[in-house]
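Re: the 910-residue chain
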Amino acid sequence: MPERLLRLSGLEPFTLTPDIPFVNVGERTNVTGSARFRKLIKERDYAAALEVAREQVENGAQIIDINMDEGLIDSRAAMVEFLNLVAAEPDIARVPIMIDSSRWEVIEAGLQCVQGKPVVNSISLKEGEEQFRHQARLCLAYGAAVVVMAFDEQGQADTAARKIEICQRAYNILVTEVGFPPEDIIFDPNIFAVATGIEEHDNYGVDFIEATRWIRQNLPHAHVSGGVSNLSFSFRGNEPVREAMHAVFLYHAIQAGMDMGIVNAGQLAVYDQIDPELREACEDVILNRKPRTGGSATERLLEIAERFRGDGGGARREKDLSWREWPIEKRLEHALVNGITEYIEADTEEARRQSERPLHVIEGPLMAGMNVVGDLFGAGKMFLPQVVKSARVMKQAVAVLLPYMEEEKRLSGGEGRESAGKVLMATVKGDVHDIGKNIVGVVLACNNFEVIDLGVMVPPQKILQVAREENVDIIGLSGLITPSLDEMVHLASEMEREGFDIPLLIGGATTSKIHTAVKIAPRYTRGQVVYVTDASRAVGVASALMSPTQRADYVAGIRAEYAEVAERHERSEAAKSRLPLAAARANALCLDWASYKPVAPSFTGARVIEDWDLARIAQYIDWTPFFQTWELKGVYPRILEDEAQGPAARQLFAEAQEMLSRLIAGKWFRPRAVLGFWPANAEGDDIRLWTDAQRRTPLATLHTLRQQVTKRNGRPNVALSDFVAPEGIPDHVGGFVVTAGPEEAEIAARYERANDDYGAIMVKALADRIAEAMAEMLHERVRREFWGYAADEAFTPEELIAEPYKGIRPAPGYPAQPDHTEKRTLFRLLDAEQATGVTLTESMAMWPGSSVSGLYIAHPDSYYFGVARIEEDQARDYAARKGWTLEEAERWLAPILNYDPARRTADAAA
């Protein structure tokens, strides 16, 4: 019998398995919780509202909560329109939706247009059992999971007894009478504020925790959710104390069984690193204990709260050197856990002198310390930047011991240290991005895996050759651009053909569980392909695959899961309604060109931009993606005050600022850029560029793709060409390439040679941010100066992050034009390689990796969109326009094809 797990889906399935300790529900698409989102919905700026949803997904929300309950909004209409728009955006629609409203008619309207399996938030017994049953049966009919509030005819439950009574009653009705799957029930037993000064409120934290524990023990398969920020309402304005209260509460509530909720980051908190005095005071309040010092818990917390306002006790702890008096084993552990390098060489040498063999230092105190790091990371009590700094300490310690170990081995033939397994890692051929792969390698090395990193742009022959020569246990592949997906499929096929049977791990920004299950895994049946979402999962996956006792069951579970994913994907795609290309073109976006007069740029052709100031560029950095690189999920600057991640984020940001200052002062990078403008007109789905203003001689053609998904309510099927004026109207299109420069590679290599992976990754992450900031900065100059269609624009660099300006800069290879080969035309027009030094790999990745390219389109009604999947009729048409064979088109467009070319070939052969 299959395990009773909560299974939700957007375009992709989400299963709440026991190895997911806590599910984060993104709350920013809720008009009651986000002033920005409420303003956008009121102003009907749905394009910007979609970006809020997209930001939620990019920042790690596993579910997004959508609520339109506001007095001045037609909630039902807004819910339907927004959900329909979300459905046409695959990068948002891939996660499950939580339809949130206090009005049932709004919820039902949402259920009628949402795709996948959503969550209804919420139903309750407040209007009696008959209404509760009616709404539950409708949820069941629509295939939705439900949040059940602990609320009945008498009001909201406040005590543990009332919470238990209501949840028990609701569960019995749902499971016994309605036939609701118990795993689809999520109870919200109400989190209320504590430390309010009202004695009746003192036990609210205990009441929730006790009710949670009872629900998980007595209501089989049901889940528990809650809004944690309510807890600390009494201390609003004192973020360190609120952060500590949330951390302590989550620590106990999650242990009791709370497995979902709105907690900004959706992570377990850094419980162990709270100042001990503050942690004890918070614990006294939340657990309603009598303080050891006497008095009440609320009074005690109020007494010390002001001392922790701002950075609180953090600075005092950083200056505390009392740990230097500890035994050597504890000093090494402390240095590893806290990433302290200042004393590691001396301490390692002291430990070596006290040990029989240098290897014993590694296998003893150093690995013991790294085990603590691994446990804290696995429990969500440490975050990735801290783990990478721990690895830096470990590498420097090993570097001290290595000469002694080599000499010992030379003299006596002694054996080396036994690793947990040997993992070969590579970024596939044609792809140059490796930050994520490097992070995974560091995390694996921290857990005693031997990692062989072949670098970037590695051909399959080399990967397989080294795998054989080194007798590796696992191969891990990484890729950022969509052509890398085909490289991974090809390598899997080669592993099958050459008789490999070792596991193949798949990761990177463009990869997904669906692609792995549908495209890669079927090509390699002798071994097991496993999709790894991020660095935090890599150790668990690799350990399970290397375990003699776990491997068979783990592989069997993965295969069953991927078979289900593939089958569900096939059913989902078959059920989707898409238009023939002719019908999609008939429904193209029709702008009012008669009343629009395009502005001509100040020059045509290409121009190199050389006046770059690193300090000025730094002002345009969007820091949110920087934190995402380090797997810290949240939006800057709010992430710095996040309940769980705040301390790690603040420390990472401070160290990034320090390195950025050195980078600017030392002029480590030499940024370069080129941009150009050309007379242009739309010609069907293409954009024709001309050599001169008279538009007599064609210069080049930019090919675009059109959405084919069926649209509702008169919404168009868009292609980029729709934003460019038709023949007879003198429009223009621009293009650009910017790069932070190739210097990042050698600077990062210097850090790596010094056993400082943290510094190497930091350099690469900052180089990426500088390139993106250059693109933002150059686009501003285009709008105000070079093209001048928004000469009076006056946004600050911070405001530009939200893209409030007119015009867009779509990039080849991204959702609005998924064909990476369009970069060839852009690079030829700009002579980009000569102008900037940026080159294109055979898979159309740009090298150096910290480079950005794209087009400029000026129409004020232009916007970003996703083409999503296309049908064979458009692939054939596109191939003809590009001068390709159909097979070439299918190879480059493989990630967006809504059909299987191999099936057509098989049918023809039959």
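Confidence is low (pLDDT under 50) at residues 265-269, 311-319.
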